[in-house]
Design brief:
By secondary structure, this protein is of the alpha/beta class. It has 13 helices and eight strands. Strands 3-2-1-5-4-6 form a six-stranded parallel sheet, with helices on both faces. The chain has a two-stranded antiparallel sheet with strand order 7-8. Helix 9 packs antiparallel against helix 10. The longest helix has about 35 residues.
Length: about 325
């Protein structure tokens, strides 16, 4: 029987082979380089190769997903079960937005290419995809406009990774939203604003800043709106809920809140539905005072009292307990 090779002996040589590209890979990478530009570094070549491999794997993954969906559909048909729960793709494609009948419009300002690292740009575009999907399935879709997209910029590059994004029922523009809408109708949503958004005004355009920066540029959108001379407002979080964490929301969360409000849902119910559970959001009392739920917000005080009481009860003898009950 052959003995298996020692892992400690084989592993370093395997890692070395993976880290060192073969001659064919080097030749292919050099062919892709522009002769007028300086040669790519080893790190850049690795990054380019990784990106190319990722694109191939993505297509393979989608083919496998389609095959799995086909198998599930055939099994459902054989079992006499419905093949889908929601509307079909054809029905969704026919669900076009009638811009003339919509109450509000939403703009996502994507003019922050230079303020985000590539990883955050990818997250930003992923949130745009969620908005688009959510809007298509809504009973009352909102006209969407993605503005400030720099030609050849990072946002456009990541958008192109989503096949067929040009066919989304969304308006794409490289121009600023200031050049596309009446200033009097614009409202920039920013958490630093002193103005509280209580109702959605008909025929107004609500602007969401497409900036994913983990709060590194705090207050930038508020400053931007002030410099532009347009209205700004914040969502009424503190007016309806008690939240002990940061109140920074993602782009898709802000859009989902607007979407639910324009469908007629109350603010408190909407905020509690949209905000993730990890934020620990709780409803405010009817008088806007959170003292009525302090015991829920800070359960450690209740636990402390209960534990002390339990400890005192344990320390008592049976005769002392019976005497207390008789008295």
């Amino acid at each position: 029987m052959n003995e298996s090779p020692d892992v400690d002996t084989v592993l370093p040589s395997v890692i070395e082979k993976v880290q060192q590209p073969d001659e064919a890979t080097k030749h292919e990478t050099n062919q892709n380089e522009d002769p007028g530009e300086p040669p790519m570094s080893k790190r850049q070549r690795k990054k380019l190769l990784k990106l190319q491999q990722w694109e191939i794997k993505k297509k393979e993954k989608r083919l496998k997903e389609k095959e799995k969906m086909r198998e599930r559909k055939l099994k459902a048909i054989a079992a006499g079960l419905p093949t889908r729960n929601g509307p079909s793709r054809k029905e969704l494609k026919r669900n076009k937005i009638d811009y003339s009948k919509s109450d509000i419009s939403v703009v996502v300002d994507l003019s922050f290419d230079g303020m985000m690292i590539d990883k955050d740009v990818a997250k930003c575009v992923k949130q745009l995809l969620r908005i688009y999907t959510m809007n298509r399935r809504s009973e009352k879709p909102i006209p969407l406009h993605f503005t400030g997209i720099k030609p050849g910029g990072a946002v456009e590059k990541h958008l192109k990774r989503n096949d067929g994004y040009q066919h989304w029922d969304v308006r794409f523009s490289g121009e600023s939203f200031l050049d596309l809408y009446n200033r009097d109708k614009l409202v920039y949503l920013t958490s630093e604003s002193d103005n509280v958004l209580t109702t959605l005004e008909k025929d107004h355009v609500y602007v969401i800043g497409g900036l994913v920066d983990h709060n590194q540029h705090k207050g930038h959108c508020h400053t931007l709106a002030s410099e532009m001379g347009i209205r700004h407002a914040r969502l009424p979080l503190s007016e309806h809920i008690v939240i002990k964490t940061r109140t920074i929301l993602t782009i898709n969360q802000v859009f989902e809140i607007l979407m639910k409000i324009q469908l007629g849902k109350p603010w408190q119910e909407t905020l509690l539905e949209v905000l993730p559970m990890r934020k620990g959001a709780l409803p405010k009392g009817p008088n806007g005072d959170d003292k009525s739920i302090q015991a829920i917000v800070n359960p450690s005080e209740v636990t402390k009292v209960d534990s002390e009481k339990s400890f005192q009860e344990i320390g008592k003898s049976d005769s002392e307990k019976s005497l207390e009950q008789q008295s």
